[in-house]
Each structure stands twice: as structure tokens, then as C-alpha cells.
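Hi team,

As requested, here is the filled-out complex form for the zinc ion run. I kept the field names the same as last time so the parser does not choke. Let me know if anything looks off before we queue the next batch.

— J.
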Amino acid sequence: MSSVSRRFGAYTVTPLRDGFFSAPGDVLTHPAGEAAAARARAGLPLREGQPTVAVDVNCFLLRGTSGAMLVDAGTGPAWGANFGHARQALAGEGVAPDEIARVLITHLHGDHALGLVADGAAYFPRAEILVPDAELAFFTSDAARARTPPARRGGFDVTAAVLEAYGDRVRGISPGDVLQGITALPLPGHTPGHTGYLVAGEGEGLLIWGDVLHVGEVQAPDPDVGVIYDLDPPLAAASRREALTQAAREGWTVAGGHITGFQKVAAEGDGFHLTPA
Ligand SMILES: [Zn+2]
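And here is what came back:
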């Protein structure tokens, strides 16, 4: 078992690092305008002299009495050599694809769901894929596709690929209890059905929150900082603030698609502060 695994309630949770995403700092946005966005970018690391968003891409292995499951699935080979390493990490944990009974999806972006698919077929041949209802409804709607800017339409193609590979093994889920000890917490905005999964613990829960934060060191202190990938920026900011507030108040550990390992959240001034748990 990996040294970074931790136990929460009925599950042993292991982050699987799928890859490393990097983009120019101007993917950050701010509702207060360009000056505020520039201040946010000033908090980014420099690469070749330019502020750069440089973050991990993660998914999660959960092992419990009912077997092994994943939260999200990485990119698979679709995004090139910097990505798709979750499959190897899963093998390193001694888990074969046909041992995965379920995959819980936080949202239907490629870095979270394309790893479900291998050459058009199901990479996890026995898995049931659990996707928030609101996410499935949006990303299967022709009308929603038509009103989404072309550069933001990737989720529609991802969804089609997942449905093609898994058919009726893709199951919609509603907010609330999903499985024993796991609750779906809607955190809409990044995508319409974007959802966190709260793993109940004895005294301490774990919120696997998908893409609440892309750049923790910038967005935790100022949750209004968004990314161009947020489909509804004001709603994403409200969900970001809500998730951070709840995690701080409840003492939850958090983990996500683009933060490293397990973290704790504390309120600090008007914003929040993350520290490794
Ligand atoms: Zn993501």
C-alpha cells in the first residue's frame, strides 16, 4: 500500500497522480476585472519569465469492504505523455482494471473522465460509472452544446465517448447518499453538475472536491479568482467559497483534481488557507 494512503471511515483512500497540467497565467479570471486578475497572476510561479499555472492532475482509489473504486479516472492516453499515468499508479497499487467496481465522476471534463475509455472501449470492463444527473443532462443536450462557446465544448465529446464505451453502465446519481459512507455534494459552476464526494470518517471526513481549486495558493486566499474553464464563473466562485467554508467549519480534510495530496482548510481574513494534512 502506498505511503500516502489514508483511512477515512470505511475506505482507504489513495491519490493517483495522473499527470501535470501547465498553462499561461492568463487562464485566471476575476469578476472585479483585469487589474484584479493581474494581481492573482502575480501569485503564480514563473516559467521562462511568465506567470504559469502548473498543477497536478489527480484521481483517487478508494478501497473498502465492497472492493475497489475510483473517484475520477484521469485522461488516459488522450492528452499525451504528460498525462495518463493514473493507470500505471493503479497497477502499482496492485489493482487491475477489472477489479474496479465503480467510478464516481466529479464532472465530465477530459482530465477527469477520458481515462475511462481505451480505444473506444471501457478501460474498466466491469465498472459502473456514477455521474451526477445534472452533469449528464447538460453534456448530452444538443441545446446546451449549441449555446456553449466552441472552445468550452470538450465535455460534450468526453460524455459521448464515455456513453459509447459503457452504455447503460453509466448511471446518473442525485445529491445526497451515493454509497455507504459517501455523499454527493453539488458544487456547480465549473460545470453544471460538478460534484464533490464526502467520504465520512470517524470524527474526520474527506471531501474529494474535483475542481473547486485549480491553483490553491491563488484561489484559496481569494475564492473569486476563477479559471477560463469555469462554465459559469459566478456560480463556480460561490461553490468554491461554500466548499472552503464548509471544509474549514467541519474540519474536513480535502483532496481534489488539482491540489496535491490531502489538505486542511482554515479561514484567513476574507479568504482561506490550505496546509498539507
Ligand atoms: Zn480538472
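Two things worth flagging: The pocket of zinc ion is lined by residues 109, 111-112, 211, 257-258 (CB under 6 Å). Residues 6-276 form a domain with the Metallo-beta-lactamase; Chain A fold (CATH 3.60.15.10).

Thanks,
J.
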